[in-house]
Design goal:
The chain has nine helices and no strands. The chain has 193 residues and is mostly helical.
């Protein structure tokens, strides 16, 4: 499933942008008018990508704060420009699930790549992988979509080598879990939120 480059850029940079903590957005989204004028399918795809990016950012922030639980996630999400209560609720479920299962994700990746325990990974990569693990194992999103979106997050937020690293780990995870043959009809719109 290919997403036009300008739609992906909009989802990564202009939609559901986190604010700086004082209740204001870092940038007032100029995407509102563009979103409103899009066909519904494109708008939903942009919002889905933006929601996944926002979930990753919240997980990264929780990890950086060394949070014990995901209770701070709601406050972080409320800093996002243009987020609706329904989006907050859906993202809280996704973030809380990924955060709660982080030890399980870390153990799964340690089995796949024993030379890269979680503490040796870049924190950005660790957050991307934990989110992807949760989506692959606890949601109905097709694993190939999860892998593709995790790689796209790595391209934007991590190092040059991270996309290949993340792709390799998630591909091995998908195959190890026997998820590679799941039919696309089993997914629910590829939507994390």
């Amino acid at each position: 499933m290919s997403v036009k480059k300008d739609l992906r850029r909009m989802a990564m940079e202009d939609v559901l942008v986190l604010g700086d903590g004082d209740g204001t957005a870092l940038q007032e989204g100029t995407a509102d008018d563009a979103l409103a004028s899009m066909p519904e399918s494109e708008r939903e795809r942009v919002l889905t990508i933006a929601a996944r990016r926002l979930a990753f950012q919240v997980l990264f922030e929780l990890d950086s704060r060394r949070a014990e639980d995901a209770t701070e996630a709601a406050a972080i999400l409320l800093r996002a420009h243009g987020i609706t209560p329904a989006q907050v609720e859906a993202l809280l479920v996704l973030v809380a699930g990924a955060f709660a299962r982080r030890a399980e994700a870390d153990a799964a990746f340690l089995r796949i790549a024993p030379e890269w325990p979680a503490h040796r990974m870049a924190s950005v990569d660790r957050a991307i992988l934990r989110l992807a693990h949760h989506e692959m194992t606890a949601t109905r999103t097709h694993p190939r979509i999860v892998i593709n979106e995790a790689v796209e997050l790595a391209k934007v937020f991590s190092s040059d080598k991270a996309p290949a690293f993340i792709n390799g780990l998630l591909d091995r995870l998908m195959k190890g879990l026997g998820l590679g043959d799941r039919a696309f009809g089993d997914e629910v719109d590829g939507d994390p939120a």
